[in-house]
Amino acid sequence: xxxxxxxxxxxxxxxxxxxxxxxxxxxxxxxxxxxxxxxxxxxxxxxxxxxxxxxxxxxxxxxxxxxxxxxxxxxxxxxxxxxxxxxxxxxxxxxxxxxxxxxxxxxxxxxxxxxxxxxxxxxxxxxxxxxxxxxxxxxxxxxxxxxxxxxxxxxxxxxxxxxxxxxxxxxxxxxxxxxxxxxxxxxxxxxxxxxxxxxxxxxxxxxxxxxxxxxxxxxxxxxxxxxxxxxxxxxxxxxxxxxxxxxxxxxxxxxxxxxxxxxxxxxxxxxxxxxxxxxxxxxxxxxxxxxxxxxxxxxxxxxxxxxxxxxxxxxxxxxxxxxxxxx
Length: 327
Description:
Layout: H1 2-26, H2 31-47, H3 53-82, H4 86-115, H5 124-159, H6 165-195, H7 201-229, H8 231-251, H9 255-271, H10 273-283, H11 288-317, H12 319-326
Helix pairs in contact: 1-3, 1-11, 2-3, 2-5, 3-4, 3-11, 4-7, 4-10, 6-7, 6-10, 6-11, 6-12, 7-8, 7-9, 8-9, 8-10, 10-11, 11-12
């Protein structure tokens, strides 16, 4: 059931994001960022007023549509303002999402504990605030995007830059793999803490925040490393560290040691994230919106779509087994 909601959040957006990416490559539509945030916020808010699983399923899909609208244009805009420091620029952009993953669950947990599930409506406060700011800035976004698009067109014509589809394809495979790993870990680590390590549900949920905090610092570090040592080296380092840490986590039955391992494990998962996004845009300089839609959006969706299959494995063979499958 939990994996099903992750699937709902990502299925519709996975189909739409590449299409929206291609649209934003042809014409700048900065208003999509504000509209996407509003739709996502409304979807999450209304969940607290429902009692049917399938109605919640539909609203989660609606919320995922908002995410699909936001990422391609936001990713393209972030690339434009990053200048020469693409790795650092994308790390700052993606770390904003990571900080949201830290703060959002905390705010919602407090609100729900006080007012029940309807307390999730508190999410509308930051949503409406930021949407209002984006609407006020929409004209500036449009002017900046138009100017940067023209500059990029001149650069591409003068340098004769071509899209490297083969390189982008290989990169996408690694991004999709990382997405499946990340989604699986986020869904099953709290359950693993409860069912295998015999801890409380509250402590299991806290592990999501622990992973998110580690992800914030790792995402920023990954951007700096990519600019200094190269995109590919940073991505390979990320994967190389992740595997032994994940296996080591599964080999321990001590909750303190497991928590200590969880921090560098989460960091290694996110170290190569922003370099992957920036490298994808580098491979497709003529299609930044499409590259963003795939590396920022579709990649996340692939992970969400895979979780029901992992959930079936976990229900049938146990959470330890499903974690080894992820490894």
